[in-house]
């Protein structure tokens, strides 16, 4: 009876699930869960078997051809996925709103108009804004944003493409062809990087899209429920007093009567948890004082540490800084007090990189090293939403020796944009 609708719902559910696995499966936090395993099967084992089969059948011609297309699709900036996203939004709104309009009261209309407009505004803001391009002109300013933490970012490393020093927390994006300040990830939905200067727009895009689909789900179900009540006055949305098959049949009937509202409501209901999940993940990253890019580096560290290849020792703040590769002053309120290094042989580090003082201590767990970029949730959030904000200098509370001097630059309240 509800054949086509069931199929549509199933297809959407499957697509949503695979999208979820693709986006979340590579995250270190989920590496040892079924999601991580499924991600490896989908993106490593299956492509690997197809490649070896292709090697036998066509001497690898098919793989080379697919790789070339995939390379073009993934490595150049083009708005394909963004157009798909805009179409999905617009077509759903076009299907839902005209039949729903006469059924809405004034406040529902006002909320609907607002919620429909907001994702477009923040999509435009995220896509059209500068995510934090590091250029020759603004390079010295970019260097003052964050200090090196000597754990996941070390001074003196250059970008081979841009031929300039990599500021702490930056990463080169091969799609945008720029180094990006506080690079989070390149997002194909906004056809832009998410970085220092636009991550607040990206968060607002996630929040407004999640709010839109949540409200559409709620509105869709209550409108349909209202229509059922016209026929069956005793009807309630959770269906008390009806058997499962009656309940199912009543929904199937109203979904067929109001196909356009019904289809969009189901689509929204299925995608809503996914969008809240993505927003939740980004809020978690902010809470942890990290980014998608950095969480990968921390994930790698966790493995090195567990294997016993990681060492740390103290880094005095009055050490001599090489000003040519490390900024003397940053707007960040704290500086690194430790250096963490990995070695290949499991012996304490030696050589020119092994700066610092005291004995090397083996580090087994991530919690034994400090994350310099975590100031606590509210300050981390401030750093996201007010990218020109300068923090007050802080003294480390954990610091044992009181005799340390820190380069004091007074109270910094605002750092001029480049
Ligand atoms: Zn670069
Ligand atoms: Zn990019």
Automatic annotation (TrEMBL):
One of its GO terms (molecular function) is protein-cysteine S-palmitoyltransferase activity. Its main location: membrane. The chain crosses the membrane at residues 7-25, 80-97, 109-127, 201-225, 261-287. The keyword Ribonucleoprotein does not apply. Signal peptide: none annotated. Pfam families: DHHC. It comes from the Eukaryota. Its EC number is 2.3.1.225. Keywords: Acyltransferase, Lipoprotein, Membrane, Palmitate, Transferase, Transmembrane, Transmembrane helix. This is Palmitoyltransferase.
């Amino acid at each position: 009876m509800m054949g086509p609708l069931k199929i549509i719902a199933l297809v959407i559910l499957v697509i949503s699930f695979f999208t979820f696995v693709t986006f979340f499966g590579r995250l270190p936090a989920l590496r040892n869960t079924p999601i991580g395993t499924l991600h490896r099967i989908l993106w490593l084992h299956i492509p690997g078997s197809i490649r070896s089969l292709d090697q036998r059948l066509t001497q690898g011609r098919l793989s080379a051809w697919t790789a070339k297309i995939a390379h073009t699709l993934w490595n150049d900036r083009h708005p394909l996925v963004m157009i798909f996203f805009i179409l999905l939004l617009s077509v759903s709104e076009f299907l839902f709103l005209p039949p729903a309009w006469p059924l809405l009261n004034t406040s529902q209309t006002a909320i609907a108009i607002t919620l429909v407009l907001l994702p477009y505004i923040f999509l435009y803001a995220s896509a059209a804004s500068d995510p934090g391009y590091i250029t020759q002109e603004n390079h010295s300013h970019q260097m003052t944003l964050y200090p090196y933490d000597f754990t996941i970012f070390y001074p003196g490393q250059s970008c081979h493409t841009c031929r300039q020093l990599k500021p702490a927390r930056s990463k080169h994006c091969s799609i945008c062809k720029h180094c990006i300040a506080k690079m989070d990830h390149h997002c194909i939905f906004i056809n832009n990087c998410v970085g220092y200067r636009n991550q607040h727009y990206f968060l607002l895009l996630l929040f407004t899209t999640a709010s839109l689909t949540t409200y559409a789900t709620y509105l869709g179900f209550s409108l349909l429920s209202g229509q059922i009540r016209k026929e069956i006055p005793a009807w309630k949305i959770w269906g008390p007093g009806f058997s499962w098959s009656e309940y199912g049949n009543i929904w199937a009937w109203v979904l067929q009567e109001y196909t356009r509202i019904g289809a969009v409501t189901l689509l929204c209901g299925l995608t809503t948890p996914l969008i809240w999940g993505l927003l939740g993940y980004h809020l978690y990253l902010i809470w942890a004082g990290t980014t998608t890019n950095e969480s990968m580096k921390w994930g790698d560290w966790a493995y090195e540490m567990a294997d016993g290849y990681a060492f740390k020792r103290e880094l005095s703040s009055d050490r001599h800084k090489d000003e040519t590769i490390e900024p003397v002053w940053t707007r960040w309120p704290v500086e690194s007090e430790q250096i963490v290094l990995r070695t290949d042989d499991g012996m304490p580090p030696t050589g020119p990189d092994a700066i610092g003082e005291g004995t090397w201590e083996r580090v087994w767990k991530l919690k034994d090293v400090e994350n310099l970029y975590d100031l606590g949730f509210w300050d981390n959030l401030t750093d996201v939403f007010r990218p020109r904000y300068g923090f007050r200098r802080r003294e480390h509370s954990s610091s044992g020796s009181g005799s340390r001097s820190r380069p004091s630059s007074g109270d910094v309240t605002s750092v001029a944009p480049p």
